[in-house]
Design goal:
The chain is α/β, with parallel strands linked by helices. Helices cover 37% and strands 28% of the residues. The chain contains 8 helices and 10 strands. The strands form 2 sheets. It has a 6-stranded mixed beta sheet with strand order 6-7-8-3-9-10. The longest helix has 18 residues. The structure holds adenosine-5'-diphosphate and magnesium ion (MG). The site of magnesium ion (MG) has 3 residues, from helix 1.
Length: 225
């Protein structure tokens, strides 16, 4: 379902060129849970941003369900980000002045479903990720890191995406909370047959995924299990 070929992203900083992603090739099947490990600065976030159409490749193709997102116009890219992709970030990226429920409703608003329907689904998703009723009505500032990451997982699942991209989702959490959040992501994605690509520093977490790739020198190599 995801086929990346000759993917390249070059940054120019000062007089120098940085090849963050260089002639990369890999593919991921529907429903697979894939982890990417690699040193800081090896290009992991650059790769996820391109897969999520937040950044444009310098070259190569990214085919999702046979459509090349590197070639899409802006209108199609907005639709792609809204319907096909769910993001989970290290720092949660929730909107501070909205409640947990409103944060989860937001992507559904962009997708155009009705208000009552959105609210019902948001509450249902937040229950699935283990939030209590009174916690759902709080703004992110009054939730713990683990609770905020659960809200962001619910938000990522809101429009039933084909792919969830998670950039160090447990990076700001203590070990135990991180494991719980990770197991939750794993369970929900398997239930919905969602493909997940997770960037992580945690080798124990990487060990639980179906496949692991290491990113170095702008290229991915699969780590045999
Ligand atoms: N917007 C940018 N402009 C210039 N250089 C960038 C930019 N984004 C990332 N880089 C460079 O690309 C390389 C990969 O960065 P990044 O993808 O953030 O790595 P990682 O997420 O693995 O830590 C680094 O050398 C970084 O400095
Ligand atoms: Mg990064």
């Amino acid at each position: 379902m995801l086929v990346v070929d000759h993917l390249t992203r070059t940054f120019k900083s000062g007089g120098e060129e940085v090849h963050a992603v260089s002639d990369m090739k890999f593919s991921v099947d529907r429903g697979e849970f894939v982890s990417i490990i690699g040193k800081s600065g090896s290009g992991k976030s650059t790769l996820l941003s391109m897969l999520g159409a937040l950044d444009k490749p310098s070259g190569g193709s990214i085919k999702v369900d046979s459509e090349d997102i590197a070639k899409m116009n802006d209108h199609s890219l907005i639709r792609y980000r809204c319907h096909k992709i769910g993001f989970v970030f290290q720092n949660y990226n929730l909107i501070p002045n909205l409640t947990a429920i409103e944060n989860v409703m937001l992507p559904m608003e962009f997708a155009g479903s009705g208000n009552a329907e959105r609210k019902t689904r948001a509450i249902e998703l937040l229950r699935q990720v283990g939030l209590e009723d009174d916690q759902m009505r709080r703004k992110p500032g009054r939730l713990s890191g683990g609770q905020q990451q659960r809200v962001s997982i619910a938000r990522a699942l809101a429009n039933q995406p084909s792919v969830i991209l998670a950039d160090e989702p447990t990076g700001n959490l203590d070990e135990q909370t991180g494991r719980m959040v990770f197991d939750l992501l794993h369970k929900l994605a398997k239930q919905e047959k969602t493909t997940i690509i997770v960037v992580t520093h945690d080798l124990e977490i990487a060990g639980k995924t179906d496949r692991t790739f290491r990113l170095s020198d702008g290229k991915l190599t699969e780590v045999k299990k």
